[in-house]
Amino acid sequence: MPNVKEGFHYTPIEITKELIKDIDFIDGETCLETCRGDGAFYDILPDNIVKDWCEIDMGRDFFEHTTPTDISIANPPYRKDTGDITQGYKGRINILIPWMNHQFSITNKECWYLLNGKCWSSMTPIRLNKWKVLGWNVCFMRILNIKKWYGRYYWICFSKTKPSIISF
User: Fold this and answer.
1) Cα end-to-end span (Å), the chain
2) Is the model's pTM score more than 0.85?
3) Domain segments of the chain as ranges
C-alpha cells in the first residue's frame, strides 16, 4: 500500500521500529493493531505475544471487534466519510473519540496512540477525567516530527496499571 491513500497516512516503518521499543510486551500477552494499514506496526510486533489486527479495507472493521486484548495500538483514522454532505465538513465526521472509547472498552492494560496535534488538542480535561474515572491514565508521551506528514505527532500511552504523568 502507498504511504498516503485518500487522505489516510500509513505509518512509516522507520517510525514504528522506534515507537514499538516503548512498549513492554510480556510473554503470552495479546496485542491488537486496531488499524493495520500496510502493517507497519503489526509486522514488527514481537513473536512472544499473541497478535491480532483490524483493517476495514481488508474486511475487519475495528468497531465490530469485541475480543478483549491486553495491549492495543492505533494510528487511527481521524475522520470518516459519511456520504452525507450535510454532516460534518464535506460529509466527514471526526471519529477519534468514538475510536478511543471503543479501544478502551476492549483493552485490559494499555492503549497506544499515534496522534497529530489537532487530535491531541481534543484531549480536554473533561475527556481525560472521564477516562481516568474508568481507570485510564496517560502514562507516557513522546513528541515526534514526521515531516512526510504534517509535522508534529504524539505517541501516547493510556494505561490501567501505571500512574498518570499529567495533571488537569
Assistant:
1) 40
2) yes
3) 4-159
Residues 111-143 pLDDT 10s: 999 998 888 888 999 999 999 999 999 999 999
- Is 4-159 assigned to CATH 3.40.50.150? yes
pLDDT tens digits, one per residue of 69-81: 999 999 887 655 5
The three cell numbers locating residue 129: 477525567
Query: How many CB atoms are closer than 10 A to CB 6?
Result: 5
**Given the C-alpha cell 474486511, which residue does it identify?**
59
Q: Could you tell me the three cell numbers for 2? A: 502507498
Task: Count other Cβ atoms within 10 Å, centred on residue 5.
Answer: 12
Long-range contacts of 78-82 (CB under 8 A, 24+ apart): 78/116, 78/118, 78/119, 79/7
Cell of 81: 466519510
What whole-number distance in Å separates Cα of residue 22 and Cα of residue 88?
35
* Cell numbers describing residue 110: 494499555
Cell of 109: 492494560
- Which 8-state DSSP code applies to residue 38? T
Q: Which DSSP symbol is given to 60?
A: B
